[in-house]
Design goal:
Shape: globular
Oligomer: single chain
Number of strands: 10
Strand content: 15-25%
Structural class: alpha/beta
Order of helices and strands: EEEHEEEHHHHEHEHEEH
Strand order of the largest sheet: 6-7-8-3-9-10
Radius of gyration: 18 Å
Distance between the termini: 31 Å
Length: 247
């Protein structure tokens, strides 16, 4: 349904206590089956507890950057450290929400079961969830207003319901760092309000979040820092607009 490293994971070594949540230096990533670059020379430091927006047009490299951080794409060069550790060194601390189109919504699974897979990084594949795990799942079901949908097959959900389900799945993992790929894209107004409320709650909980978004109107209000990408490069907003990238 989605390729993620679900093996049971613990930290390999000690995380650096004063390290940023993410420290990316001169990252270059190639396009699969192409000589072009998806990302070129990107450097980003994300402080612990901050909320950072990734902004850019389709094809700018936002999804590639998030997938590189979570370890789904191997860079050509450069470095990524997560809490001072190499990518994969502490998988359970990093929760990833992909775009809805990357999920096979025909998979025979209920909303509750899909959310529960967020615990697999702690348990390993197909292990039975404990009562404590089930309590965490129910908490996120209630938090995302999914209680009336919990036993529904995921293919019966609307776009907004799917997005809330995927966010609940990311949250139930209990990670300190959240990587969210366009969570507000093509959702209804009610879902947007729920998602904004939950993101605000996460900020008060001290969680770190990197969020790919097209919503320029809320950048000053919702984010501590904004990273603009265009054609795989890190640019200023002024440069992007000057070159007609159409954010």
């Amino acid at each position: 349904m989605i390729t993620l490293p679900y093996r049971r994971e613990t930290c390999h070594g000690q995380t650096a206590p004063d390290a940023p949540a993410i420290d990316i230096r001169d990252l270059t990533v190639g396009m699969q089956g192409d000589n072009r670059l998806a990302l070129s020379g990107v450097s980003v430091a994300v402080p612990v507890g901050s909320r950072v927006a990734l902004v850019g047009p389709n094809g700018a490299g936002k999804s590639t950057l998030l997938k590189s951080i979570v370890g789904l794409i191997r860079p050509q060069s450069g470095s990524i450290l997560i809490y001072g550790m190499p990518v994969g060194g502490c998988l359970h601390r990093v929760a990833y929400l992909p775009q809805r189109g990357e999920i096979d919504w025909r998979f025979p699974m209920t909303v509750r079961e899909l959310i529960g897979t967020g615990r697999y990084v702690h348990l390993g594949w197909m292990k039975r969830l404990s009562p404590a795990d089930q309590t965490l799942v129910q908490h996120e079901i209630d938090r995302l207003n999914l209680h009336d949908l919990a036993d529904r097959q995921i293919g019966q959900l609307s776009g907004g319901q799917q997005q809330r389900t995927m966010l609940a799945r990311a949250l139930v993992q209990g990670g300190d760092l959240l990587l969210l790929d366009e969570p507000m894209n093509a959702v209804d107004a009610d879902t947007r309000r729920v998602l904004h409320r939950v993101l605000d709650e996460l900020r008060t909980e001290g969680k770190t979040a990197v969020i790919a978004t097209h919503d320029l109107d809320r950048l000053d209000r919702d984010y501590d820092e904004v990273v603009f990408l265009a054609d795989g490069r890190q640019v200023s907003l002024e440069e992007a607009l000057a070159h007609g990238h159409g954010f």
